[in-house]
Write a structure and sequence with these properties.
Layout: H1 4-14, E1 39-47, E2 53-55, E3 62-66, E4 71-76, E5 79-84, E6 90-94, E7 100-104, E8 109-113, E9 116-121, E10 130-135, E11 145-149, E12 166-174, E13 177-183, E14 190-195, E15 200-206, E16 217-223, E17 226-231, E18 241-245, E19 252-257, E20 264-269, E21 276-281, E22 291-298, E23 305-314, E24 316-321, E25 327-331, E26 341-347
Antiparallel strand pairs: 1-26, 2-3, 3-4, 4-5, 6-7, 8-9, 9-10, 10-11, 12-13, 13-14, 14-15, 16-17, 17-18, 18-19, 20-21, 21-22, 22-23, 24-25, 25-26
């Protein structure tokens, strides 16, 4: 037995190990009108209409939906790496003069485990979109591959304009349950629930059934035993809303308007806090990018307390805090449908209600 020990130790040393993640590189600081004590840097550029950001388990590396380019990227210390590429894209808006605006593909992606990514296949017409299970591309250039697909979500009304749900985004995962924000016919607004084991998705939480007129759910977050959902509302209109849903009854428990925020799209709970969040305000406009905002939102009372911490953000979309405690924000950049999109890292945001 003692003679075997050196051999076993030698063999153990030969086992391939995943290299330790390198720090994500950054470009120079970006002036986004941040309040004193905060700092923003660009950690990825060259994106087209980026949407969702999440983090790989273990390494904590940012995972970004480069939506308009039809790919999902892992932002590593050696630069961006495609986890899946060549996904379908479509233009969200086609004008009467033939112009096509807002090219979108995968709009959200989360890790089910270190070897599996769940991605929204959002580059299709409403009613034709599904969730994809992806084996990510590797360091040596092996492309990502789709291993499974969910069902689609059929129309839920008799309206001829209702083609089913699309632009699936705003993922929030709780074990084997995935909550998905849906965008289909605005006469019936849904948050869907997907079972990661059975790979079935179903429209579940209906705002309209409970008298909530604000549509366009953008982000869901687990909070206080329920589901907190951010609704953006109509573009350019100050009608954004946060709704806390009871998971058991499927009914809304509380609602908060967000004064001063016209098109809220991203929602992330500040680490270590109970009731504090950061919200991105896109200040949406058709065909151009306006200066947007980052705001702290406190839900500790019946009225949401909103404090702007940045007011020159180039089209902020989604946001989340990474394992490093920093806020990561996807931005359209200075123009839509170009490779001017960004992923920002914002530091200095700490909880006040600990």
């Amino acid at each position: 037995m003692h003679k075997l020990l050196p051999i076993l130790l030698l063999l153990a040393g030969c086992v391939a190990r995943e290299p330790a993640p390198q720090p994500v590189p950054e470009l120079p600081p970006l002036d986004i009108g941040l309040a004193t004590g905060h700092r923003a840097v660009v950690v990825a550029d060259g994106l087209r209409n980026p949407s969702f950001v999440s983090f790989k388990p273990g390494s904590g590396e940012p995972t970004v939906c480069d939506s308009g380019n039809g790919r999902v990227l892992l932002i590593t210390g050696n630069g961006p790496r495609a986890l899946i590429d060549d996904m379908a894209t479509e233009f969200w808006k086609v004008l009467e003069d033939g112009r096509k605006l807002y090219q979108v593909g995968p709009m959200a992606a989360v890790w089910q485990d270190q070897e599996t990514l769940v991605v929204s296949d959002s580059g299709h017409p409403d009613g034709k979109e599904s969730l994809l299970w992806v084996k990510p591309g590797s360091n040596d250039g092996e492309p990502g591959a789709v291993t499974a697909r969910s069902n689609t979500i059929a129309p839920t009304t008799d309206d001829a304009a209702d083609k089913g749900e699309g632009n699936l985004t705003g993922f929030c995962r709780d074990g084997t349950t995935l909550y998905v924000c849906c965008h289909g016919n605005d006469k019936r607004t849904w948050v869907a629930v997907a079972d990661l084991k059975t790979r079935q998705i179903k429209a579940t939480f209906s705002a309209d059934e409970h008298g909530i007129a604000t549509n366009s759910p953008m982000q869901a977050r687990l909070w206080r035993g329920g589901l907190l959902v951010l609704y953006s509302g109509a573009g350019g209109v100050d009608d954004g809303l946060l709704v806390h849903w009871d998971l058991a009854s499927g009914k809304p428990q509380q609602q908060w308007i967000l004064p001063g925020l016209s098109d809220p799209m991203g929602l992330a709970q500040i680490p270590g806090s109970t009731d504090e969040f950061v919200v991105t305000d896109n200040a949406w406009a058709l065909g151009k990018v306006n200066d947007g905002k980052l705001a702290r939102v406190n839900l500790g009372s019946d009225r949401a307390q909103v404090a702007v911490i940045a007011n020159r953000v180039p089209g902020p979309v989604n946001c989340d805090f990474g394992p490093d405690g920093e806020l990561y924000v996807t931005c359209l950049g200075t123009e839509i449908d170009t490779d001017k999109g960004l992923l920002l890292r914002v530091s200095g945001i700490e909880a006040h209600d600990r």
